Amino acid sequence: MWLLVLATVLAALAAVAVPEPSVPPPREAAIFADLSAEELRAVRAFLMGQPELGLAPSRAEPLAKNSLFLVELLPPKKRLALRYLDQGGPAPRRQARAVVFFGAQAEPNVTEFAVGPLPRPSAYRPLRLKGRRTVPFAARPVTALEYELLHRKLAEATAPLYRLLRDTTGFWYHNCSEHCLTFSDVAPRGLVPGERRTWFMLQRFVEGYFLHPVGLEVLIEHSATDPGRWAVQCLWYHGHYYATAEELAQRYMQGALPTARLPPPPAAPVFSSYEPRGRFSTGTPTDVHGAKVCEPQGRRYHLRGNHLEYGGWSLAFRLRSSAGLQLFDLRFNGERVAYELSVQEAAAFYGGHSPAGMQTKFLDAGWGMGSVTYELARGIDCPEVATYVDVHHLYDADGPVRFARALCLFELPTGVPLRRHFDSNFRGGYQFYAGLEGQALVLRTTSTVYNYDYIWDVLLYPNGVLEAKVHATGFIHATFYTPQGRRYGSRVHAHVLGNLHTHLVHYKVDLDIAGTGNSFETVELHLENISNPWSPGEPGIHACPLLGSQGWEGRGTVGCRGTWCPWGPTWCRFCRYHLAVTRHHENEATSSSIYNQNDPWEPVVDFEGFVRDDESIEDEDLVAWVTVGFLHIPHAEDVPNTATPGNAVGFFLRPFNFFDEDPSVASRSTVIVRPLDATASHVQIQRWTPASPGPCVSPGPFTYNGTYWQE
Hints:
The protein is mostly beta strands. The chain is built from 8 helices and 39 strands.
C-alpha cells in the first residue's frame, strides 16, 4: 500500500531561460495535454460561428451580451483513458470545455459545453454540472469588462468626496490623472443566493497599493446587466457607516466627521516597496550572488511535451486555466501509483471590523487561480538551469494568451542526504561510511491572485516519495486601522491593519495502487501494559501494537474531521475534513468550481454531497481529498510581503510495504567509503558517478577521512 501523510506546517500566528524546443509528447500523455494555441483558436472560431449562440467579443461593451469566457481541455473520462492506456483501446476523443455567459437573454445564465472533436471541432453539447444544465448568472466570475464598468461607477459615486479624499489622503478617485486612488474588491458578493453586491476598498495607487487603504469602503449593487441600474447602497468610513456619499461629504464639510490625515508617501522607497533599505549588523555581503543550482553533467530528467520522466517516476501534467496544476498517470518503475493529483481550491477566510475584512471569504478558483500563472523569474522563482514551459490560456479574452515561462522543472539538491550511515567501530575508526545524495525533481508554477502569490510545487524523490507543497507569499489583505480592528489582526503600519485569516488548500488524489480496486485503512498506535516475559514478577513493560482499520471497516464514505474550518456549513465545505475518502465518480471530478465564490450558499459543486453518499469504500476505485492549511496572524514582518519560511503546507505520498526494499538503491549517486587501515590513511571509495562533479561545485575530487581521534 501507499501511505498518505499530511505534513502540514501550522504557523503560530507563513542556463538562460529560452523557450524549450517543442517536442511532441508520447501518445499516452497527449490525451492529458493542455489545448494548444491553435486548438483554442479553433474552438473559439467554431463557437463564434454558431448563429444560435449569438456570441459577441468578450472585452467589448455591452455587458448584456452572450460571450465566451473560458476554453480549456475537457479531460477524458477515466474509464476511457484507462481502456486506452492499459488495454490498448481507442484513444479518447479530444474535447474542449467551453464556458459561455448568456447575458443577452431575458433570464441570463451560464452554460458549459463540450466541444469537439479536436483539432477540428464540428459539434458541441451542453455539459451537466451535478444535475444542473445552467448556472445562475450571478454566480459567474467578474470579467475585465465588468471591472471597467465598476471603475466608472466608483468614479461617479466618489465625485462628492473629492475634497474629503484630497484633504485627508492627497489622492482622489474622480477625474484623476495622478495621485490616484485604486480599489480592491472582496467576496462573496452578497449575503444570499442571487445577490451581486460587492464591497470595494479604496487604496492609494502606489507601489504595493494593497498596504495603502485610506479608510473608505463602498458597497455597490451590480446584479443587473445594465450598468445604469447599479447603485451605491452603503459606505464605511473610519469605523462608521453612511447611507450615501453626499451624507458623508456633508458631514465632512460641517466639521462633524472624525478623520485621520495620511502623510504623503515618501518619494522612495515607500514602505511597501521591495527596494533594499537598512543594513545587516554582521556586515556579511549581500551584494554578490549566493549559492546556485547547477547541473554539472547535464539534466537527469526527460521532458517530452507534457510527459516527464525522472528516476523511477513518469507522469503527464497540465496547467488548467480554471484551477491550476493537474498531474495524470503517475507511475513509479512503470506501475501506476495515482491516476490524478491536482489542485482543487485555495481558500482564505478573514476576520475584520470593516466590511472588507469581515465579508472576505476568498475562494480563489473564482478569481481565475489557474489563469494567473505569470512569468517565473530566472534565478529567483526557479534556478537558472531550470527548464521553462510556456502555456496558453483563453480566460476572459478574445483569443489565446501566451504566458511565457509559466511552469518550470529542475532538479534540486535538498541539502540533506536521502539516507546515510556512519558505522563506527567505537575505537576511533569505522567499518564504513555510506550515503546517498539528496535530490528531488521539482515541478513548479505560481498563481498570483491579486495580492497573494501561491507557489505550487510537486517534488519527486528517488525513493518513491512524492511531496505536494504550496508556499504563500505576496501582500497581505490589509484594511484601514481602527482601534476596534485590533480584535481581528495586528497593526502592521501606522494606518494599516493586517487582518487575521486562515489559508486552506484542497487537493484531489485519485490513488490507483496496483489497480483501481483499493480500500481505505487507518493505522493507530495504542499503549498497553504486558508482563515481563523473561523476568516474571518484575515490573511490566509497555508495548505499542499497531491496530489497523481502527474505527473503519471499509463501509461508508470516510471523512477525518479537522478543526480549522472557520465558516458556516454551506461554505467551502471541504475545509471540514483534513482527509476525506470517496468513491470515484465522473460527475465528482472537482471539489469546487469557478462559480462557488459568488454563490457559496447554493454552490454549483457541493463537496459535502461527495461524503454523504454512504457508499462502500472497500476494494473500490477511491479518491482521497486532502485539505492542508495554516492560520496567519499578520505582523510587521509581513511588510512588504509575507515570506515563504513558515508559510508552507503540503502532504506526502509514501510507499508502505509496496516495494521489497527502498527503490532508491537503483540510484548511482551513492558513495561508500571503507578504511584500508586502522588510521584510515588509506580508504577505498566506491562511487558510480564521476570523481568530481565539475567546476561549478568544486575543482577537487571527493575526499573523506572519517576518524575521530582524541588529540
